[in-house]
Design a protein that fits this description.
Keywords: Cytoplasm, Nucleus
Protein name: RWD domain-containing protein 3
Distance between the termini: 58 Å
Number of strands: 9
Radius of gyration: 19 Å
Largest sheet: 5 strands, mixed
CATH class of the largest domain: Alpha Beta
Number of domains: 2
Main location: cytoplasm
Order of helices and strands: EEHHHHEHEEHEEEEHH
Helix content: 40-55%
CATH architecture of the largest domain: 2-Layer Sandwich
Organism: Macaca nemestrina (Pig-tailed macaque)
Strand content: 15-25%
Pfam families: RWD
Number of helices: 8
Shape: globular
């Protein structure tokens, strides 16, 4: 713990900030994902005490002063698997699922890498699904993290336009959002999958306990 720990913080400020909390993403090559989640939770706790006044600078100073203390606490130091497991079970009550539809991807390789990074940072699992021209993103995780993902998706320059310039995603739609039910499968990771036929895609949804979702929303895209 004598060495400096580089920490990358990304703040997403909603329209009504600072009357509401900012979205915060935490990354570090030196910390486990569980430790990054703990740091994020502590930052949000601190942010609550600073509500209604600009707080980003204060939060940066606070984490610089308190990072070592946070990482030295027993629950933060414990094994990565244990942390991940305990966090996911306590968050299970707040587990939500959402289905998004993308119109197209021009810079596919870069776009996919960006989505994988966001899902990892926000502890979201699910599928990025390609079938012909249909592109679907099925995400599962904490509802606040799903909201943060949508902010990133709509405000970041993730693709390129017809002239090759970087552009924001304007052609995304939320098809469905609900709290995870008992019949829904828990996804363990975020995976990118390509399907050659509609029945393959249908099987993916049925295996996940989302047969109704497929028939109501996905079939309409094919017709």
């Amino acid at each position: 713990m004598d060495a400096d720990i580089p920490l990358e913080l990304v703040f997403h400020l909603p329209v009504n900030y600072p009357s509401c909390l900012p979205g915060i993403s935490v990354n570090s090559e030196r910390l486990t994902r569980a430790q990054c989640v703990t740091v994020k939770e502590k930052l949000l706790e601190q942010a609550e005490s600073l509500m209604s006044e600009p707080m980003v600078h204060e939060l940066v100073l606070w984490i610089q002063q308190n990072l070592r203390h946070i990482l030295n606490q027993p629950e933060t130091r414990s094994g990565n698997e244990k942390c991940t497991f305990s966090t996911s079970t306590t968050m299970d009550d707040g587990l939500w699922i959402t289905l998004l539809h993308l119109d197209h991807m021009r810079a596919k390789t870069k776009y996919v890498k960006t989505l994988e990074k966001w899902a990892s940072d926000l502890r979201l699992t699910g599928r990025l699904m390609f079938m012909g021209k249909i592109i679907l993103i099925l995400l599962q995780g904490d509802r606040n993290n799903l909201k943060e993902y949508l902010i990133l998706q709509k405000t970041s320059k993730v693709d390129v336009d017809s002239s090759g310039k970087k552009c924001k995603e304007k052609m995304i739609s939320v098809l469905f959002e609900t709290k995870v039910q008992t019949e829904h499968k828990r996804f363990l990771a975020f995976e990118v999958k390509e399907y050659s036929a509609l029945d393959e895609l249908q099987k993916e949804f049925e295996t996940a306990g989302l047969k109704k979702l497929f028939s109501e929303f996905v079939l309409a895209l094919v017709k």
